[in-house]
Amino acid sequence: SKCLAPGLRLGFVIAPRPIAGQVAAALRINCWSISPLTALIGARLIEEGAAARIIDIQKQELRQRQAILSEILGRFDIQSHPTSTHAWLRLPEPWRGAGFARTCLER
Fold first, then answer.
1. What was the pLDDT predicted at 2?
2. Mean pLDDT, residues 16-31 taken together
C-alpha cells in the first residue's frame, strides 16, 4: 500500500481455503484492522484499476532510475533489480563503506 500512497496503510491476505479460518482468527487476535474508509479506498483503487496504473508508472520511473545508475556506475559491481528502489554496490579493494562515503561527500 505504501507504493500507492504513503498514508494508505493496508494489506490483503489471500489464504488457502483449508487455513482461511485460522488466518482470519489470527488477524483478529492480533488486532490487525483498519478503518472502513481506508479499506474502501484501497479496494476501489484495486477494483477500478488505478492501483495497477500507479504501480506501472512507478515501475517505469524505477527502470529509468536504474538505467541512470547503470550509466553512471556501470563499470562497478552493482546488484539490483530493474524495478527496485535500491541497489547494492560492491566496492572494489581497498575501499570500505565509511571511506567511500567520506570520499563521496568530499566530492
1. 66
2. 90
Using alpha carbons, select from 47, 33, 38, 49 the residue that is nearest to residue 5: 38
Whether the upstream peptide bond of residue 6 has omega within 30° of 0, thus cis, is no
Task: Return the HEC string of the chain.
Answer: CCCCCCCCCCCCCCCCHHHHHHHHHHHHHCCCCCCHHHHHHHHHHHHCCHHHHHHHHHHHHHHHHHHHHHHHHCCCEEEECCCCCCEEEECCCCCCHHHHHHHHHHC
How many beta carbons lie within 10 A of that of residue 90, not counting itself?
9
pTM attached to this predicted model: 0.69
Are residues 67 and 17 in contact, defined by beta-carbon separation less than 8 angstroms?
A: no
Chain position carrying cell 476501489: 44
* Residue 14 pLDDT: 92
> Can you give the pLDDT at residue 31?
72
